[in-house]
Amino acid sequence: MSFHFMFKIVIIGAAGVGKTSLIDRYVDNTFNFNCQSTIGVDFKTKDVEIEGKIVRLQIWDTAGQERFQISFSSSIYKNADIDIVVFDLTNEESLNKIGSYLKEIENNTRANPLIAIVGNKSDLIEEQIENVEERINEILKGRELKLFKTSAKDGTNVNELFYEIAKTFKENQPKHHLIANIDFENNDFENNDSENIVLEDIVFENPERQNSKSKKCC
Ligand SMILES: Nc1nc2c(ncn2[C@@H]2O[C@H](COP(=O)(O)OP(=O)(O)OP(=O)(O)O)[C@@H](O)[C@H]2O)c(=O)[nH]1
Ligand SMILES: [Mg+2]
To answer: Any stretches that span the bilayer, and where are they (predicted)?
Structure first.
């Protein structure tokens, strides 16, 4: 399997909002009621075809619990092409944390990443926070970021979320950031500090590293 572009997506948000569950639903089409807290970072990949090109999405899962989090100054955040900030549509506290996550992204990413806000657990219809769109607009303070409502449990909007953000990124940034300086053999992702190289329409052979560093969450 080969691919034309690779985009690095980082998923951020409070503990228990469903970050890992969203990735598991999207990549493996699975859902686990007793998903364990993520420790540190983890990633999975999925290839998606967008307008005739194969785009490899490298999706990084982060820990919501502060004691398991890695620093926002880490290259994981710095080199992100796309940041997805997730909250739980049934949990006020997770909504109130969005502002501080946005500040961390703005302070720690090198280039302007594409940012999407995701309210997860849309299946829990009875327990939804009221006036969520208005609340989000207040938090965004004029930033024009798209809000998606998803359910990792029943799959609502999950494929659409990843497809739409990848397509938007591809369209808005014709010169793509292909993550350079990765030692595929040794999975040396932490030292990926070089300038991103610009590559267009070059097909890369699959380095056979998919999920090689993944820790199974569930
Ligand atoms: N009803 C419902 N439950 C969900 C959904 N997504 C996740 N959950 C549940 O919410 C809990 C937390 O999900 P996780 O995916 O572990 O949350 P997380 O954001 O990765 O949590 P941390 O790794 O601790 O930061 C689990 O019990 C999931 O089964 C959803 O869309 N609907
Ligand atoms: Mg998790």
So the answer is: none
